[in-house]
Amino acid sequence: MAKNIMVLSGTAMWAKVFEPDTKFNPDGDYTINLQMPVAEATPMCEKLDEIVQAKFDEAIEKDPRLKNTLTTQCCSNPVYDRDTGDATGNMEFKFKLKAKVQTKDGRTYEQEPVVLDSKKKPLGKDMLIGNGSKVKVAFEPIPYVMQSTKKVGVSLRLKAVQVIDLVEYGNSATSVFDEEDGFVAPPTTEATNNSVNITEELDDVADF
Q1: Which residue among 14, 15, 157, 206 sits deepest, i.e. has the most Cβ atoms within 10 Å of its Cβ?
Q2: What is the pLDDT of residues 127-168, one digit of tens each?
């Protein structure tokens, strides 16, 4: 799986990585937003901007008439306080993976992101990732030219999530328990197989 996989570390928001969101896509999308301070986001923004610029130059080379109509789109957005409207000093990246894909030849297949704990073990689907969790996100940047809006940008295709510090979503009854020495559930065969390729690749990816 030799793809251009990148990794970002930050704070998770609105994670839907076990059950796809069907609000805007009936086939479902796996999504997660990642927030981090501007200074930490800048190196990745610069790399992604280079990818966008290369796509822009490619489009202009194919059709010079587009030079005066195409514009580039930023890969991240500043975060504002919901109550005051003031800038928080953070930037937010949005990652998405289609749950079902239809190929050009009419075939369809399903996919899902790999979700791991801090030791790179598959995380059970009953463990929901709440806002504020510290995570790493592995993704593939996909540059695009949107003819309808004349925008050139890059989508961040979600590949895997590693949970470093979990904030559980909701008021789970399990929160009344403390961690104890004893039985540890083995990972499922399916989750283990799905995580093999991505975990091997993540070992060689630079972290931002």
Answers
A1: 15
A2: 899 999 999 999 999 999 999 999 999 999 999 999 999 998
Does the predicted TM-score (pTM) go above 0.85?
A: no
- Pick from 39, 45, 63: nearest CA to 6: 45
Q: How far apart are CA 139 and CA 5, in angstroms?
A: 6
Residue whose tokens read 């790999």? 114
**For residues 35 and 40, what is the distance between their CA atoms, to the nearest angstrom?**
10
The 3 state secondary structure assigned to the chain is CCCCCEEEEEEEEEEEEEEEECCCCCCCEEEEEEEEEHHHHHHHHHHHHHHHHHHHHHHHHHCHHHHHCCEECCCCEEEECCCCCCEEEEEEEEEEEECEEECCCCCEEECCCEEECCCCCECCCCCCECCCCEEEEEEEEEEEEECCCCEEEEEEEEEEEEEEECCECCCCHHHHCCCCCCCCCCCCHHHHHHHHHHHHHHCCCCEC
Tokens of 191: 């989750």
Closest CA to 129 of 142, 140, 115: 115
Structure tokens at 183: 């039985």
Q: What are the CA-CA distances from residue 64 to residues 68, 70, 150 (Å)?
A: 9, 10, 14
pLDDT, mean over the chain: 88
Structure token pair of residue 95: 């990652």
